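Table S2 (continued). Query chain:
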Amino acid sequence: MSERGAVGVAVGGAVLIGALTALQARINGTLGAAFGDGIVAAAVSFSSGLLILIVLSALLPEGRRGFGRLVHGIRTRSVPPWMLLGGLVGAFTVASQGLTVATIGVALFTVGFVAGQTTGGLVLDRIGYGPAGVVPVTVRRAVGAALAIAGVVVCLSGDALGGVPLWMLVVPAIAGAAVSWQQGTNGRLRVRVESPLTATLVNFIGGTAVLLVAAVVHTAVVGAPRAVPTEPWLYSGGAVGVIYIFLSSVVVRRTGVLLLGLGSVVGLLTTSVLLDAAWPAPAAPSPAVAVLASAVAIAGVVVAAVPWRRRHR
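Corresponding output:
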């Protein structure tokens, strides 16, 4: 496959990651509303994903080899402790979904998330944090990022924010910036252990541990959830998270952190429009505004991703 074709496939994977992120946000947000407790919902979601990964890692030869390399790397310190912390970001992201999406909708959650992710990706690529090394902030990439942010501004237009607490937009923005760091960290861990499956497992171990402790403390303070939902699909958020974190650790090596984030913007916004149209939330933007925002963001991805070349005379 040519370099251009490989990048095109990677960008397609980035779009799919965004779509899965939006789907997970809706699932976890609905689960949090059903429980009446976003922290408990996040712990349940992450725990189910961890169980899936433990089974896969035990059954698949790649999983066993990758886990062996991880243990060896920790013992020899070739895998530094900070590479094991990506799961903390995943825990925060899932918790923020459970706390906000049922109120603000997927699209408005995406507004804050995309703003943080785009800015974080630009900075991290510039300092060379991702496994692709230093990725220059060219005019093309800067314009692409600016268009993605413009899509966010469009989504904020209208009366959608009336009565919505400010923290419900701030928290997703922090989560988006943190996910840029998580994607770069996962990519570097994948290179060290030579296994996307093991890199994903590490994320879910750390995230589950943090969320279980948080859920126990939160329950002790405010009491147990008022109800336990019985719909099976509400418990699929963990499986969706396994898929998109696994894809992130693979795709980021080809795209860099910023381009992965921009591709995710397309999937996030497009899927958010569809989800909010099917299941409207009180503070969701109008379909017309959401579609326009998606179109602007897609233009940003095209500008950043397509390797425009000057014609030689």
